[in-house]
Amino acid sequence: MSTSRIRFRPGLVPTLAALLLFPLLVALGFWQLERARKAQDVQAEIEAHAQSHPLTIGRQLLEADDLRYSRIVATGFYDTRHQFLLDNQVHNGFAGYDVITPLRIAGSDTRILVNRGWIPMGQSRAHLPLYATPIGEQVVSGVAMIPSAHYFTLARPKPISSVWPRVWENLDMRRFRRAVPFPVQPAVVLLDPNSPAGGFVRKWPRFDTGIAMHQSYAGQWFLLAVALLVIYVWVNVKRVPADT
């Protein structure tokens, strides 16, 4: 009666593949953990700003990093000449626009953009919805966001001529600043839901920096690394005769 034993005899190709892939999978896991750590720092910054005293915005231009996620207050007058509708905004499954209106800060020519909230599209894109803009001095309060400089666009936007475009595909701060003759703060105010300063639907999403997502991705990469080791051992374990 012949007997056999189990021996580990790694092949060249599986060994080279494991040596290449295992460090890569582990590195990707630690990369996602580092991204989660940075996301935690941002989340802590957001929460700290939420608890801090509101920042009063005046004529002096501020740096974007000084405004990001800050609660702010600004007093001034809405500039209807340069307001526009931000396209491709969805609320409860319905298409519409966000109303973006510059606020001319009292006692200056400086503006800050205010996102006054969402309105439904209306009958068609050929017939833009009507919306009211309050006149007189307004006190605007909300959270300052810095629009992304990277966005998807279907076509290169045309230079703004004497006719101000009523609909913008993206909130392009650089384009806006080039098109206007006055200084503009580098942030957009998400108007508080309880503000009386001429707002519309303002169910702003909670700021989520993606901590859980990055931690989940890290776990997946580490599990793949463990699975690779298991497969490597299983492929290279062979049953051989006992006398060999």
Characterise this structure.
- The chain is of the alpha/beta class and 244 residues long.
- The chain folds into 2 domains: 8-44 and 211-241; 54-191.
- 32% of the residues lie in helices and 28% in strands.
- The chain contains 4 helices and 10 strands.
- The chain has helices at 12-51, 64-67, 173-179, 211-236, and strands at residues 4-8, 55-56, 71-78, 84-91, 94-105, 111-120, 138-145, 167-168, 184-191, 237-241.
- The strands form 2 sheets. Strands 3-5-6-9-7 form a 5-stranded mixed β-barrel.
- It is elongated and about 95 Å long.
- The two termini are 15 Å apart.
- The mean pLDDT is 85.
Give the helices and strands, then pairings:
Elements: E1 4-8, H1 12-51, E2 55-56, H2 64-67, E3 71-78, E4 84-91, E5 94-105, E6 111-120, E7 138-145, E8 167-168, H3 173-179, E9 184-191, H4 211-236, E10 237-241
Parallel strand pairs: 2-3, 4-8, 6-9
Antiparallel strand pairs: 1-10, 3-5, 3-7, 4-5, 5-6, 7-9
Helix pairs in contact: 1-4
Please give a quick description of this structure.
With 244 residues, the chain is of the alpha/beta class.
